[in-house]
Amino acid sequence: MNPLRKASKKLLEKHVYLVGTNHKAGSQLLRNTMHWMFDTLGATDSCQFGSSSRPITSKPGFNEDCTLHPTPIRFYNSISGKDILNLRKEAAFTGGMRGVIIIRDPLEMVVSSFCYHHRGAGAGLGLAPAKIMEMGPEEGVPAMVPYMLPVVRKMTSAYEVANPVRFEKFTNNSKDFDDTMREILVFLFGNEITEKQKQQVLDAAAVEDQNRGLEGFSEDPALNRGFNHTNDEEDMAAARRALHLIPEDLLAELQTHRTVLGYA
């Protein structure tokens, strides 16, 4: 057996490791980079709350429900602050919890969600208006807000009780991608893993950095329900130009969340 993996197996049983995401806040990016990280460190089991197209580790290779099969490594999509606090209480009896969540500018989440659902992604999941594919940005961007506000509220509440990584830094350039991954590794493991192990994780996760032009899980439609989660930049720009059409009361709430999250 690879001595790196043998040593890591014991490490990954010391704490509860949580990965928390929310729709269009970089959920695929964080899940996929954490997938590479845990696989590289020799993870052999994981679970998730709710449904997802793929578990966060290659093994066991199928979806495990954390409520039925709690494991040290847990993936929680659509996470809130209350969820984090409850998991902290539970983990207090098992070595404590270490986790990472991701946040994004709420206005960009609205823009991204419109573009994503406008091209048919996530159809039938109740995450967008039924006729979103027939709507242009002027109609569709405001129509997406009532669907995205509950997501943003959860994300903000999670931010208020946990230190996040920011989608914007994660995707800015390759240096920021690597720096973000190093910050995650230090926060999760400190000196419990070697510099060699950290570099192995960085090398594996680099395929998720879109600035490098490589093809990781984020670029594989077969693993993302047939859709790449990266939107066309021209479509994003057109959607941004429609943000001013969001009803005043809804836009005000989005701006409040932006302020709390440090985007305004």
UniProtKB/TrEMBL annotation:
Q: Which domain of life is it from?
A: Eukaryota
Species this protein is from:
Durusdinium trenchii
**Protein name per its UniProtKB record:** Copia protein
Tell me which InterPro entries the record gives. Answer: P-loop_NTPase (IPR027417)
